Amino acid sequence: MQEQRTHPRKQIEKKIEITDINSGDVLGSLVNISLGGFMLISSAEQPLNQLFQLRIDFPAPIDGETGIDLGAESLWCNDATGPGSFWTGFQIIDISDQGMELVQRLIDNWAVS
Q1: Using CA atoms, how far apart are residues 108 and 113, in angstroms rounded to an integer?
Q2: Which pTM value belongs to this model?
């Protein structure tokens, strides 16, 4: 399959949880991220083509911030490493300029080289 992403995704080496702002539920953990989207791993299958208001919680503050709030759309969901484990790909559709800077700092701080 040919790569179609504008920004290459970077693998994350720390456990970084992603929370649904509206429900307060932790959806899963961040696997990789770029300036345009991310993938999470979760124990529940995520609905496709759904809009989410999400928070990415940092394992340690970045510039005094503890996380990033953003809007994202779920694009695909596949079985992951075993039963009850799912990978879901999201496109970032709404994020502040500061949030975008924090995504870049997250990549700089916790992405695998």
Answers
A1: 9
A2: 0.88
The pair phi, psi for residue 65, each rounded to 5°, is: -95, 140
Per residue in 61-89, pLDDT (tens digit) is 998 999 999 999 999 999 887 778 999 99
R_g (Cα) of the chain, nearest Å = 13
At residue 30, the pLDDT reads 96
Task: Return the sign of the alpha-carbon dihedral for residues 60, 87, 107, 36.
Answer: negative
Per-residue pLDDT of 11-31, as tens digits, reads 998 899 999 999 999 999 999
Write the secondary structure of the chain as one string of H (helix), E (strand) and C (coil): CCCCCCCCCEEECCCCEEEECCCCCEEEEEEEECCCEEEEEECCCCCCCCEEEEEEEEEEEECCEEEEEEEEEEEEEEECCCCCCEEEEEEEEECCHHHHHHHHHHHHHHECC
Cα 72 to Cα 22: distance, rounded to the nearest angstrom: 13
